[in-house]
Structures are given as C-alpha cells and as structure tokens.
Design a protein that fits this description.
This protein is mainly alpha-helical. Helix content is 73%, strand content 7%. Helix 2 packs antiparallel against helix 7 and helix 7 runs antiparallel to helix 8.
Length: 407
Amino acid sequence: MATKAKKIITFTWSGLDKSGNQSKGKIDAASLAEAKALLRRQGVAPRKVLKESNFSLFSARGKPIKPADIAFFTRQVATMLKAGVPLIQGLEIVATGVEKDALKKLIFTIRDSVNGGNDLASSMAKHPLFFDDLYCSLVAAGEQSGALETMLERIATYKEKLESLKAKIKKALTYPTAVLAVGMIVSVILLVKVVPQFQSIFSNFGADLPGFTLLVLDMSIFVQEWWWIMGLSAVLFFYGFIQLKRRSVKFANFLDILILKLPVLGPILRKAVIARFARTLSTTFAAGVPLVEALDSAAGASGNVVYRDAILQIRNAVSTGQTLQNSMLMTGVFPNMVVQMIAIGEEAGSLDSMLDKVASFYEEEVDNAVDNMSSLMEPFIMVILGTIVGGLVVAMYLPIFKLGAVV
C-alpha cells in the first residue's frame, strides 16, 4: 500500500518579473512561504500570493500517472543531472514542466523528501505504486557509484523500451477485438430495430418464407425478448473472468500457458517475453547487480508464468556454479539463437551488451510480427463482418425475390 503523500498546494500569484513587468501565474508548493521562496528563486518579486486549491497526491481531478509518465520523468531528471543541474533544482524544473497534477505533486513530494536529507532511492521507495523494487535498486546503485545520471538514463531507456513493447502487444489485441465488437453491436441493432420492420412486411406476403429468413426472424425475436439477459450475462462473464484472473493464481497461470499456444498470437507473445527478459537482465547486469539478483528481477518482469518459472530455474542453476548458457539450455523454452548469443557474450565478457542486442532483435521481431498480423487479419475480419452483416441483409431480401411469383 502506497504511503500517504504530503499535500501540495497550488497558489496563484502576481508580481514583477526579472524585467520589471507585471506578471502572474500559478505555482505548486507545500506552504505559502515556500511558494514565495520559489518565486524569488525564479527572479519574480511576488506582490500577491493566494492559495488556489489543495489536492492530495492522487486527486481524482487529475489524470492518473501511467508508466509512460514515469519513463518521461526519469528521462527528464537524467537530462538535468547530465547538464550539471543539482538534483533538487532539477526535480523542481521537471515538476514545473509537467501538466498532470498527480505527477507534479509526486515529483514535489520526492523533492521534499530529498531536501529533507533522504537519498533519491529511499524517497522513491515511499511510492511503490510508481517505483518498483527494481527501479529503486537501480537508482540506489547509481547513487552509490556516483553515476546517478547515467543510471537514470539507462532506466529511462529500459522503461521506454518496455512501454513500446506493451503498446505493440496492445495493438495486436485491440484492433481485431474492437472491429469484431463493432460488428456484434451492428448485428444486434439490425436484429432489434431493422429485422422487425421487415417482419411486418413479410406477414402480408401470403407465401412461405425461405428457411434462412425464418432463422433470422427467430433470432430477432429471441434477441428482442432476451437482450437484457444477454447483455447482463456478458457483463457478468467479463467481470467474473477478470476477478478470477486476479484472485486465482492457478487460473492466471493456466491463461499464461494457454495464450502461448495460440496459433498467431502465441509466437508474438513469446518473442515479447524474451525481449523483456533480455532487456531487464541487460539493464540490471550492466548496473553492477550480481547475476543471481539480476535473474530475480528478470523473472519478476517476464510477465508470464512459463518464463518466470524457467528464469527462476536458471537462477537456481547459476547460483550452484553453472553457466548461464547451460542453465538456459536446460529449461527448453529459449530459442537456440538466444542461448548461443548469450554463450558468446559470456565468453567475451560482454554479457550485458549481447543481452541488449538480443532484446533489440526481438523487439524488432515483435514490431514486424504485429504489422504482419494486422495486415493478414484485416481481410479476415472483413470476411467475418461481411458474412454476419451481409447475411442478415440477404436474409431480409430473399422473400422480396419471391414477391413477383406471389403477385
């Protein structure tokens, strides 16, 4: 559970800027005195500073903080430190340029903690919802080695790569799901609103209706009578599915195993997991984290029970003195190319560099696979939608073709 954050107050101010001109704006600070001090530090002579509002860190008024925001924040702080800006001042500058209220208040809270004598890693560790153990461990390693800006830059790159990978997987899942959902909604609308209009016309035909048309009419009657039960069942099903996945470890593990066996999506997810494993291991190992601990972090970041168990098995084998190459080979879940590249990295003493190449290769593979899948699925989805929607339309017009014979 996240530690309760210190409240930050938004003040509106008016005063004279560096050129002596009248100016006004807003500033975030913990108190009125701090707000005035920050304004003077920016070269503003404040005349009036008034409290505007007072939010908690996770105010509902603001947009939630996303992992991409943390990656952006990390990159900005690394840039400030590389430019020679002191940490506290750099945090203030980054916070000033942030638009999201929640993220701005989070940065100010971290700044206050650092200003109070805490190191950056422990200040971030107070907010585990946004900074996990791996993140804080890497920051702590950077502070201890005196290369915080380099470590933050490496963390930013790591998180940006992971977010890019997640976006590609979401793209692979979202497009077909959205199109099929729209198709189902259109079909229900046709069955509830359009088909009944044709039914009233067909009742006066005085001829037998085609079997396909009768089937669609029966479907329309069923949907009109039971649409609310169908909708409620769908909602309950998805809610129950999500809750079961969250609460049942066995069910979640079963889904992880099942999803890797899917014909098209499975290979893409395998490549994504391997890319995530290589990227995490490369980042942690390059930061000076021992290999066994780095494998622990990689297992937690894998996101799939099959590979998590395999990585933990590798960790146990490495801790007994076996090479990383042989340990990976025994699991049977990593491609031979990955094992061989890691073997070369071990022999050459450049494991982190080789893991980085593996991660980049598989990230590009995922990108290409998602693009190819999207291209292949577009005509397939169009055929499905055409069959569903077109079939309903054809069923309604078949009796009209008999109208001439009846007349």
